Amino acid sequence: MLISIPDVLTAEEVAQARALFETVEWVDGRVTAGHQSVKTKDNLQIPENHPVARQLGETILAALGKHPLFLSAALPLRVFPPLFNRYSGGQSFGTHVDNAIRQVTGTPHRIRTDLSATLFFAGPEEYDGGELCVEDAYGVKRVKLPPGHMVLYPATSLHHVTPVTRGARVCSFFWIQSMIRDDGQRSLLFDLDLAIQRLNSDHPNHPSAVQLTGVYHNLLRQWAEM
Ligand code: NI
User: Fold this and answer.
1) Within 13 Å, how many C-alpha atoms sit on residue 208's CB side?
2) CA 181 to each of CA 76, 101, 114, 156, 160: distance values in angstroms, whole numbers, following the listed order
3) Percent of all residues in the chain with a pLDDT value above 70, rounded to a whole number
4) Is the pLDDT of residue 50 over 80?
5) 212 alpha carbon to ligand 1 midpoint, in Å?
6) CA distance 112 to 183
7) Integer Cα distance of 147 and 1 in angstroms
8) Considering Cα of 211, then 215, then 216, then 218, what sign does the dihedral take?
9) CA of 197 to the centre of ligand 1 (A)
C-alpha cells in the first residue's frame, strides 16, 4: 500500500525548516547507506545527530503523533528519528531496497523497517526530476508531493529517486516499525477503519458501526505485535 498523507507540516513549519536547512553543512548521503545501496546513492544529508536534524525530527514526530490518517494507515509502534536529504545537480538514488533493521545511532534501540516515509519540503515546481519511484505488484508509482506532504510505502519495495536536473529536492526520510508487520493485514485494517468512519458520518448511530468497530479491535488484538 502506498499512501499520501497530506498536511503533515503547516506552511509555517515548512518555511521554518527551510530557513534552518540554509544554516547546515550537508554531508555525503552515503554515510547511512547499506553495502548494496552505497553504490547507487548520490545525495547530501544533514548529519544524523546534528541539532537541526534533531529539532526538525521532533517537529515531524509531534505532527505525526496527532495525524489521524498517519496513525490509521501506519499503526506505528516505533518511528526512526527523521533524516534529511537533498538532491541537486543531477543527483539521484538508484534502485534499492531499504535495510530491514536499523539501529538508532548512539542508542541500543533497533527498529524493523516495515514502512518507509518521505516528507517533502520543496514544491514540485521548484525542481525537475527527483521523483520517488516505488515498484509494487501493479507497476511503478511515481511520487512528487507538495511541501509538508508525506508518502508512506512498504519498506519491502524496490524504489529509486530519478536525477534532479534543475533546482533542489529536499526531503525528510525515515522508517516506521508498525504494530502490524504484514502490509496486507495493515491494509485491511486501514480499509476497515475508513469504512467505519464513513458509516459513522453517513449514518450516525447505526448499530452496525459498533459491531464493525468490535471486529476492527479484535483483529488488531489478534495481529498486533508490541
Ligand atoms: Ni530507500
Assistant:
1) 10
2) 10, 13, 6, 11, 23
3) 100
4) yes
5) 36
6) 13
7) 22
8) positive
9) 33
Residue 55 CA to ligand 1 center (angstroms) comes to: 23
Cell of 140: 511503478
pLDDT at 105 over 90: no
Residue for cell digits 476492527?
Answer: 216
Answer yes or no: are the C-beta atoms of 126 and 102 closer than 8 Å. no
All 3 cell numbers of residue 190? 486501514
CA of 205 to the centre of ligand 1 (A): 44
* Alpha-carbon span 139 to 113, nearest angstrom: 22
Q: Is the dihedral of CA 158, 82, 71, 109 positive or negative?
A: positive
The position carrying cell 512528487 is 144
Question: How large is the average pLDDT for residues 216-222?
Answer: 98
